[in-house]
Amino acid sequence: MTLKAALRDGAQDLIGAGAGLWPLSILTRRYFGRRIPIIFYHAVWRSGDPRLKLFGGVETGSFERDLARLARMFDFAPLDEVLSAPAARGKSKVAITFDDGFDLIAGGAIDVLRGFGVRATVFVNDDSWRYKRLLWQHAFGVISAMRGEASFLRAFNEIQRQQRLGARIEAFAQFIDATKAWPVGAFETAADEIWASCEMPPMAEFLSQHRPYLDHAGLAHWRRLGHDVGFHGKSHLWSKALGVAEIVEQYEAPARALKDLFGLDRIAFAYPFGDRLPPEQERALAATGVFSCLLGTDRLSRRGESPFAVDRVEADFGLVRHFFGRMLLRSLRRQDATPV
Ligand SMILES: [Zn+2]
Q1: pTM for the structure as a whole
Q2: pLDDT in tens, 264-295
Q3: Same domain as 122, residue 61
Q4: In this structure, are residues 269 and 295 in contact, taking their beta carbons and an 8 Å threshold?
């Protein structure tokens, strides 16, 4: 880590940890009162659950501490309420969301949510909730966890070379960026070939053994408990790579089917990787009438922004640093401590 990055992390941690303390709490309240605070996680597992190592995510204990911290400064509310809430003078509303459709019931998140009276939204992918396959990026994580980073990198780089998908990568963390240049058709076959060349068990067998995702029955149960279901793309691809027909195939058609399956008027949508479509295609997607919002990442939107332009902040790698620290520090840097 560079000195600059270490200093930045340190400053974010300091600001984040003090966000609820006077006098910083005055700025915190004012800042979040004028934003649309939406947080997202991926998976939550109990300590010792083997799926924590295979799929990443946060432990239930750490998730509970996050919600306790949030409860001191926010009121929890469902996503649609947070999107439409007016600017707040007192406590703001915050929405808790989860991406990639992990099993939040078996994993234990459901009990923590119930303890704080949170009504959350899970964004699901067709490939996973229908149990067709592991999402490709989860498959890569599982291979690395089970066979080691070096084996994964060997197989990944070999496929990239054979199929002329891109240059060598040197570390597991680089695979996400490397795949931004892959053509849409490459993901499934490349993931299957890398999986096979690392001598992984048959994927269907792996899926039935580990059950990482909420399936149809799980989603119905999740909804009966007062939570919402949103959509996150059929196969979790990069938006920028999609052509017109692929936008229908990846986003519009499966979202419409999911919306109809649960009898919803509209369905919330979170872009895979927060990768928004170009403006013209995004306007067309919003105009289909299927979606209630189109959510990106890495920013908290201001009150009054269109639900089709709102973003969220990831808390998997630390609520204090990334939600409180990073957002407040950005606001201080821009000198908009009293934003308009
Ligand atoms: Zn995702």
Answers
A1: 0.95
A2: 999 999 999 999 999 999 999 999 999 999 99
A3: yes
A4: yes
Cα of 180 to ligand 1 centre, how many Å? 14
Q: What are phi and psi of 142, to 5 degrees?
A: -65, -45
**Amino acid, res. 225:** L
**Distant-in-sequence, close-in-space partners of 146: CB < 8 Å, separation ≥ 6:** 54, 198, 200
Which DSSP helix (H) or strand (E) runs through 268? strand 267-270
d(CA 268, ligand 1 centre) in Å: 14
Based on the fold, state whether residues 170 and 295 are members of the same structural domain: no
| Lookup: tokens for 191 | 């993931």
Read off the tokens for 289: 């009438």
Cα(22) to centroid(ligand 1), Å: 36
Distance CA 26, CA 202 (A): 55
Per-position DSSP letters for 22-52, written without gaps between them: TTHHHHHHHHHHTB--EEEE--EE-TT-HHH
CA of 40 to the centre of ligand 1 (A): 10
Q: How far is the CA of 313 from the centre of ligand 1 (A)?
A: 13
Residue holding tokens 């902040």? 313
| Structure confidence by residue, pLDDT tens digits, 195-207 | 999 999 999 999 9
Q: Which of the listed residues 173, 191, 206 is the one where a domain comes to its end?
A: 206
Domain housing 273: 37-131+213-316
Structure tokens at 241: 């790579």
The secondary structure element, H or E, covering residue 296 is: strand 291-297
**Number of independent structural domains in the chain:** 2
Using one digit for the tens of pLDDT, what is the confidence trace for 197-243?
A: 999 999 999 999 999 999 999 999 999 999 999 999 999 999 999 99
pLDDT value for 2: 87
Say how far apart CA 290 and CA 265 lie, in whole Å. 8
